[in-house]
Write a structure and sequence with these properties.
The longest helix is centred in the first third of the chain and has 14 residues, at about 50-65. The protein has helices spanning about 15-20, 40, 45-50, 50-65, 70-85, 100, 160-170, 190-195, 220-235, and strands at about 10-15, 85-90, 105-110, 110-120, 125, 145-150, 175, 200-205, 215-220. The strands form 2 sheets. The chain has a 6-stranded parallel sheet with strand order 3-2-1-7-8-9, with helices on both faces. The protein is α/β, with parallel strands linked by helices. The protein binds 2'-O-acetyl adenosine-5-diphosphoribose (OAD). 2'-O-acetyl adenosine-5-diphosphoribose binds near residues 20 and 178. One of its GO terms (molecular function) is NAD-dependent protein lysine deacetylase activity. It is an enzyme of class 2 (transferase).
Protein backbone atom coordinates (compact mmCIF):
# COMPACT_ATOMS: atom_id res chain seq x y z
CA UNK A 1 0.00 0.00 0.00
CA UNK A 2 1.52 3.29 -1.03
CA UNK A 3 0.10 6.66 0.03
CA UNK A 4 1.41 8.43 -3.03
CA UNK A 5 -0.88 7.95 -5.99
CA UNK A 6 -4.17 7.86 -4.09
CA UNK A 7 -6.32 10.97 -4.17
CA UNK A 8 -9.75 10.00 -2.89
CA UNK A 9 -10.42 7.53 -0.10
CA UNK A 10 -13.66 6.01 1.16
CA UNK A 11 -13.48 4.16 4.47
CA UNK A 12 -16.42 1.98 5.54
CA UNK A 13 -16.56 1.01 9.20
CA UNK A 14 -18.70 -1.49 11.09
CA UNK A 15 -19.17 -2.81 14.59
CA UNK A 16 -15.71 -4.42 14.64
CA UNK A 17 -13.99 -1.03 14.88
CA UNK A 18 -15.79 -0.34 18.16
CA UNK A 19 -15.34 -3.86 19.58
CA UNK A 20 -12.09 -2.99 21.38
CA UNK A 21 -13.88 -0.03 22.97
CA UNK A 22 -16.29 -2.52 24.55
CA UNK A 23 -19.28 -2.03 22.23
CA UNK A 24 -20.63 -5.50 21.38
CA UNK A 25 -20.72 -6.48 17.70
CA UNK A 26 -23.91 -7.80 16.14
CA UNK A 27 -22.96 -11.22 14.92
CA UNK A 28 -20.23 -12.25 17.38
CA UNK A 29 -20.75 -14.65 20.30
CA UNK A 30 -21.43 -11.67 22.60
CA UNK A 31 -23.68 -10.22 19.88
CA UNK A 32 -25.96 -7.33 20.66
CA UNK A 33 -28.97 -9.25 19.51
CA UNK A 34 -28.36 -11.86 22.21
CA UNK A 35 -31.54 -12.09 24.23
CA UNK A 36 -33.46 -10.28 21.49
CA UNK A 37 -34.43 -11.44 18.05
CA UNK A 38 -33.51 -8.85 15.40
CA UNK A 39 -37.14 -8.69 14.35
CA UNK A 40 -38.12 -7.73 17.93
CA UNK A 41 -35.92 -4.63 18.21
CA UNK A 42 -34.68 -3.52 14.80
CA UNK A 43 -37.66 -3.31 12.46
CA UNK A 44 -40.46 -0.75 12.05
CA UNK A 45 -42.93 -3.60 12.66
CA UNK A 46 -41.32 -4.32 16.04
CA UNK A 47 -41.67 -0.67 17.00
CA UNK A 48 -45.36 -0.65 16.07
CA UNK A 49 -45.93 -3.92 17.96
CA UNK A 50 -44.02 -3.14 21.16
CA UNK A 51 -42.69 0.44 21.28
CA UNK A 52 -41.81 0.17 24.99
CA UNK A 53 -39.44 -2.77 24.39
CA UNK A 54 -37.75 -1.06 21.45
CA UNK A 55 -37.38 2.28 23.26
CA UNK A 56 -35.94 0.55 26.33
CA UNK A 57 -33.45 -1.39 24.15
CA UNK A 58 -32.11 1.79 22.50
CA UNK A 59 -32.27 3.85 25.72
CA UNK A 60 -29.94 1.26 27.28
CA UNK A 61 -27.57 1.40 24.31
CA UNK A 62 -27.55 5.23 24.41
CA UNK A 63 -26.74 5.15 28.13
CA UNK A 64 -23.90 2.67 27.46
CA UNK A 65 -22.12 5.24 25.25
CA UNK A 66 -21.07 7.07 28.40
CA UNK A 67 -19.11 3.99 29.50
CA UNK A 68 -17.01 3.57 26.33
CA UNK A 69 -14.29 5.63 24.65
CA UNK A 70 -12.63 5.72 21.22
CA UNK A 71 -9.83 3.18 20.72
CA UNK A 72 -6.62 3.48 18.63
CA UNK A 73 -8.50 2.57 15.42
CA UNK A 74 -10.92 5.52 15.82
CA UNK A 75 -7.97 7.75 16.76
CA UNK A 76 -6.04 6.68 13.65
CA UNK A 77 -8.97 7.48 11.33
CA UNK A 78 -9.34 10.89 12.99
CA UNK A 79 -5.61 11.45 12.33
CA UNK A 80 -6.12 10.43 8.71
CA UNK A 81 -8.99 12.93 8.48
CA UNK A 82 -6.81 15.70 9.93
CA UNK A 83 -3.73 14.98 7.82
CA UNK A 84 -4.94 13.58 4.48
CA UNK A 85 -4.98 16.42 1.97
CA UNK A 86 -6.98 14.47 -0.63
CA UNK A 87 -10.67 13.60 -0.51
CA UNK A 88 -11.89 11.39 2.30
CA UNK A 89 -15.27 10.11 3.38
CA UNK A 90 -15.63 7.84 6.41
CA UNK A 91 -18.94 6.00 6.15
CA UNK A 92 -19.89 4.29 9.36
CA UNK A 93 -22.64 1.73 9.85
CA UNK A 94 -22.22 2.26 13.58
CA UNK A 95 -24.76 4.18 15.63
CA UNK A 96 -22.25 4.99 18.40
CA UNK A 97 -20.46 8.35 18.41
CA UNK A 98 -16.87 7.10 18.74
CA UNK A 99 -15.59 8.40 15.38
CA UNK A 100 -16.66 11.96 16.16
CA UNK A 101 -15.45 11.73 19.75
CA UNK A 102 -12.03 10.76 18.36
CA UNK A 103 -12.17 13.91 16.20
CA UNK A 104 -13.19 12.67 12.73
CA UNK A 105 -15.24 15.23 10.79
CA UNK A 106 -15.42 14.00 7.19
CA UNK A 107 -17.87 11.24 8.07
CA UNK A 108 -21.49 10.13 7.77
CA UNK A 109 -23.65 7.73 9.77
CA UNK A 110 -25.51 5.66 7.19
CA UNK A 111 -27.53 3.68 9.78
CA UNK A 112 -28.46 6.65 11.99
CA UNK A 113 -27.22 7.61 15.44
CA UNK A 114 -28.13 6.73 19.01
CA UNK A 115 -27.70 10.38 19.94
CA UNK A 116 -30.36 11.45 17.44
CA UNK A 117 -34.16 11.14 17.63
CA UNK A 118 -36.68 11.29 14.79
CA UNK A 119 -40.14 12.81 15.27
CA UNK A 120 -42.88 10.64 13.78
CA UNK A 121 -45.24 13.63 13.83
CA UNK A 122 -43.20 16.19 11.88
CA UNK A 123 -40.13 14.28 10.59
CA UNK A 124 -37.58 16.48 12.40
CA UNK A 125 -34.26 14.86 13.32
CA UNK A 126 -33.00 16.24 16.63
CA UNK A 127 -30.57 15.60 19.45
CA UNK A 128 -31.97 12.74 21.52
CA UNK A 129 -32.66 13.32 25.20
CA UNK A 130 -31.19 10.69 27.55
CA UNK A 131 -34.29 8.52 27.27
CA UNK A 132 -37.13 8.27 24.78
CA UNK A 133 -39.13 5.73 26.84
CA UNK A 134 -40.77 8.47 28.85
CA UNK A 135 -42.30 10.13 25.77
CA UNK A 136 -40.51 13.50 25.64
CA UNK A 137 -41.78 16.32 23.39
CA UNK A 138 -40.42 17.09 19.93
CA UNK A 139 -38.30 20.24 19.99
CA UNK A 140 -39.90 21.41 16.74
CA UNK A 141 -43.63 20.51 16.78
CA UNK A 142 -43.97 19.84 20.55
CA UNK A 143 -45.84 16.55 19.98
CA UNK A 144 -45.38 14.26 23.00
CA UNK A 145 -44.42 10.60 22.73
CA UNK A 146 -43.74 10.68 18.98
CA UNK A 147 -39.92 10.56 19.07
CA UNK A 148 -38.35 7.28 17.90
CA UNK A 149 -34.68 6.27 17.81
CA UNK A 150 -33.10 7.77 14.67
CA UNK A 151 -31.77 4.37 13.66
CA UNK A 152 -32.17 2.82 10.21
CA UNK A 153 -34.04 -0.42 10.86
CA UNK A 154 -34.26 -3.43 8.55
CA UNK A 155 -36.46 -2.54 5.60
CA UNK A 156 -35.67 1.20 5.86
CA UNK A 157 -33.51 3.28 3.53
CA UNK A 158 -30.00 4.15 4.83
CA UNK A 159 -29.05 7.81 5.09
CA UNK A 160 -26.68 9.74 2.78
CA UNK A 161 -26.78 7.21 -0.09
CA UNK A 162 -26.39 9.85 -2.81
CA UNK A 163 -23.28 11.27 -1.19
CA UNK A 164 -21.85 7.80 -0.51
CA UNK A 165 -22.44 6.58 -4.06
CA UNK A 166 -20.79 9.70 -5.49
CA UNK A 167 -17.78 9.20 -3.21
CA UNK A 168 -17.51 5.50 -4.18
CA UNK A 169 -17.61 6.38 -7.88
CA UNK A 170 -14.84 8.96 -7.41
CA UNK A 171 -12.54 7.10 -5.00
CA UNK A 172 -9.32 5.33 -5.90
CA UNK A 173 -8.98 3.58 -2.53
CA UNK A 174 -11.81 1.83 -0.66
CA UNK A 175 -11.12 0.39 2.78
CA UNK A 176 -13.60 -1.68 4.77
CA UNK A 177 -12.91 -1.99 8.50
CA UNK A 178 -14.62 -4.25 11.05
CA UNK A 179 -17.71 -5.28 9.16
CA UNK A 180 -18.99 -8.78 8.43
CA UNK A 181 -20.29 -7.88 4.97
CA UNK A 182 -23.67 -9.36 5.83
CA UNK A 183 -25.88 -6.28 5.47
CA UNK A 184 -26.62 -4.50 2.19
CA UNK A 185 -26.24 -1.93 0.74
CA UNK A 186 -22.96 -1.45 2.69
CA UNK A 187 -21.83 -4.99 1.85
CA UNK A 188 -21.98 -4.06 -1.85
CA UNK A 189 -19.82 -0.93 -1.62
CA UNK A 190 -16.65 -2.90 -2.38
CA UNK A 191 -18.07 -4.06 -5.70
CA UNK A 192 -19.20 -0.52 -6.53
CA UNK A 193 -15.75 0.91 -5.77
CA UNK A 194 -14.04 -1.84 -7.78
CA UNK A 195 -16.33 -1.23 -10.70
CA UNK A 196 -15.04 2.35 -10.82
CA UNK A 197 -11.44 1.16 -10.59
CA UNK A 198 -10.55 1.68 -6.92
CA UNK A 199 -8.01 -0.43 -5.04
CA UNK A 200 -9.90 -2.26 -2.29
CA UNK A 201 -8.63 -3.30 1.14
CA UNK A 202 -10.36 -5.23 3.91
CA UNK A 203 -9.23 -4.87 7.53
CA UNK A 204 -11.16 -7.27 9.75
CA UNK A 205 -10.62 -9.74 12.55
CA UNK A 206 -11.45 -12.59 10.20
CA UNK A 207 -12.42 -12.88 6.52
CA UNK A 208 -15.76 -11.17 5.92
CA UNK A 209 -18.51 -12.70 3.80
CA UNK A 210 -17.31 -10.63 0.86
CA UNK A 211 -13.57 -11.03 1.45
CA UNK A 212 -13.04 -12.44 -2.09
CA UNK A 213 -14.18 -9.12 -3.58
CA UNK A 214 -11.18 -7.26 -2.11
CA UNK A 215 -7.80 -6.79 -3.80
CA UNK A 216 -6.07 -7.03 -0.44
CA UNK A 217 -7.04 -8.23 3.05
CA UNK A 218 -5.41 -7.80 6.45
CA UNK A 219 -6.85 -9.90 9.24
CA UNK A 220 -6.42 -9.03 12.90
CA UNK A 221 -7.51 -6.46 15.46
CA UNK A 222 -8.55 -3.05 14.16
CA UNK A 223 -6.81 -1.37 17.12
CA UNK A 224 -3.47 -2.61 15.76
CA UNK A 225 -4.01 -2.83 11.99
CA UNK A 226 -5.74 0.53 11.41
CA UNK A 227 -3.02 2.71 13.03
CA UNK A 228 -0.38 0.77 11.04
CA UNK A 229 -2.30 1.27 7.78
CA UNK A 230 -2.78 5.00 8.45
CA UNK A 231 0.94 5.38 9.22
CA UNK A 232 1.72 3.66 5.92
CA UNK A 233 -0.65 5.89 3.99
CA UNK A 234 0.71 9.06 5.60
CA UNK A 235 4.21 7.63 5.02
CA UNK A 236 5.38 7.80 8.57
P1 LIG B 1 -21.12 -7.44 12.55
O1 LIG B 1 -21.31 -7.77 13.98
O2 LIG B 1 -21.97 -8.16 11.55
O3 LIG B 1 -19.61 -7.70 12.11
C1 LIG B 1 -18.55 -7.22 12.86
C2 LIG B 1 -17.26 -7.70 12.21
O4 LIG B 1 -16.19 -7.13 12.95
C3 LIG B 1 -17.09 -9.20 12.21
O5 LIG B 1 -16.68 -9.65 10.91
C4 LIG B 1 -15.96 -9.43 13.24
O6 LIG B 1 -15.11 -10.51 12.88
C5 LIG B 1 -15.21 -8.13 13.15
N1 LIG B 1 -14.47 -7.77 14.38
C6 LIG B 1 -14.78 -8.07 15.67
N2 LIG B 1 -13.87 -7.57 16.51
C7 LIG B 1 -12.94 -6.93 15.74
C8 LIG B 1 -11.73 -6.22 16.01
N3 LIG B 1 -11.28 -6.04 17.27
N4 LIG B 1 -11.05 -5.72 14.97
C9 LIG B 1 -11.47 -5.88 13.68
N5 LIG B 1 -12.60 -6.55 13.38
C10 LIG B 1 -13.33 -7.06 14.38
O7 LIG B 1 -21.28 -5.85 12.40
P2 LIG B 1 -21.55 -4.97 11.11
O8 LIG B 1 -20.92 -5.57 9.91
O9 LIG B 1 -21.23 -3.57 11.47
O10 LIG B 1 -27.37 -2.37 11.27
O11 LIG B 1 -23.12 -5.09 10.97
C11 LIG B 1 -23.76 -4.38 9.95
C12 LIG B 1 -25.11 -3.92 10.41
O12 LIG B 1 -25.85 -5.02 10.92
C13 LIG B 1 -25.09 -2.95 11.58
O13 LIG B 1 -24.84 -1.60 11.20
C14 LIG B 1 -26.47 -3.08 12.12
C15 LIG B 1 -26.69 -4.57 11.99
O14 LIG B 1 -27.94 -4.93 11.64
C16 LIG B 1 -28.33 -1.61 11.84
O15 LIG B 1 -28.46 -1.45 13.03
C17 LIG B 1 -29.23 -0.96 10.84
Amino acid sequence: MRGAGFQSIVVLTGAGISAESGVPTFRGPDGLWEGHRVEDVATPQAFRRDPALVQAFYDARRAALARVAPNPAHDALARLDAEWSGNLLIVTQNVDDLHERAGAARMVHMHGELKSALCLACGERQEAPETLSDGPACTRCAAHGRLRPDIVWFGEMPYHMDRIEAALAACDLFVSIGTSGAVYPAAGFVQGARHYGAHTLEINLDPSEGTHFFDEARHGRAGELVPAWVDELLQR
